[in-house]
């Protein structure tokens, strides 16, 4: 009987110790939950601040940094173009603009080929002019005209244009 009373007393002490340990663990758990909530709130605030730029806050555009802005798929300009059925750049059917060549350039430079592009034969004594390609370079103020004659190699009869 004394053995049973001793066992019962030890079990009551063990139950008391476990109850006290559980209360300590519950309190520690509440403190950790409060700390987690505080960190969660700080993280949300920092994420919100990271997402701020001059487009959605009162910050000046100079504070955005050098990072390129992301183009959204539904930007107002894209929506307007999509609505009108237009793509960026010159539209089909619109007249093109270019500079017309000058009739009498200030200087004409002939670019004669020195070897055949096909057979690498020398073209120092040209066998004849095959064709002529004309280009005009406009560097203001002097106007220059370039002529690029193409000659034919005597060994393979391939036409080669000047450089």
The percent range for strand residues is 15-25%
Q: Which H/E pattern describes the elements?
A: HHEEEE
Oligomeric assembly? single chain
Total strands: 4
The best one-word shape is: elongated
Helix content: 25-40%
Distance between the termini: 118 Å
Number of contiguous helices? 2
Tell me the radius of gyration.
43 Å
Give the low-confidence spans.
Answer: none
Q: Kindly name the structural category.
A: alpha+beta
Query: In this structure, how is the largest beta sheet organized?
Result: 4 strands, mixed
Nearest-integer average pLDDT: 80
Structure description:
The chain is of the alpha+beta class and 163 residues long. The chain has two helices and four strands; from the N terminus they run H-H-E-E-E-E. Strands 1, 2, 3 and 4 form a four-stranded mixed sheet that branches.
Please sum up the structure shown:
By secondary structure, the protein is of the alpha+beta class.
Question: What layout of secondary structure does this protein have?
Answer:
Elements: H1 2-50, H2 76-84, E1 107-110, E2 129-138, E3 143-152, E4 159-161
Parallel strand pairs: 1-3
Antiparallel strand pairs: 2-3, 3-4
List keywords for this structure.
single chain; 163 residues; alpha+beta; four-stranded mixed sheet; 2 helices; 4 strands; 36% helix; elongated
């Amino acid at each position: 009987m004394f053995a049973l009373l001793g066992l019962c007393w030890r079990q009551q002490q063990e139950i008391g110790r476990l109850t006290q340990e559980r209360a300590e663990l519950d309190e520690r758990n509440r403190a950790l939950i409060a700390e987690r909530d505080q960190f969660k709130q700080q993280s949300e605030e920092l994420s919100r601040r990271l997402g701020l730029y001059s487009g959605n806050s009162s910050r000046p555009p100079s504070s955005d940094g050098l990072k390129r802005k992301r183009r959204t798929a539904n930007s107002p300009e894209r929506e307007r173009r999509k609505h009108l059925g237009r793509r960026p750049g010159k539209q089909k059917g619109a007249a093109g603009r270019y500079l017309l060549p000058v009739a009498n350039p200030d200087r004409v430079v002939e670019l004669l080929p020195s070897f055949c592009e096909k057979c690498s034969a020398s073209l120092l004594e040209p066998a004849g002019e095959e064709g002529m390609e004309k280009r005009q370079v406009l560097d203001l103020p002097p106007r220059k005209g370039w002529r690029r004659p193409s000659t034919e190699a005597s060994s393979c009869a391939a036409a080669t244009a000047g450089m």
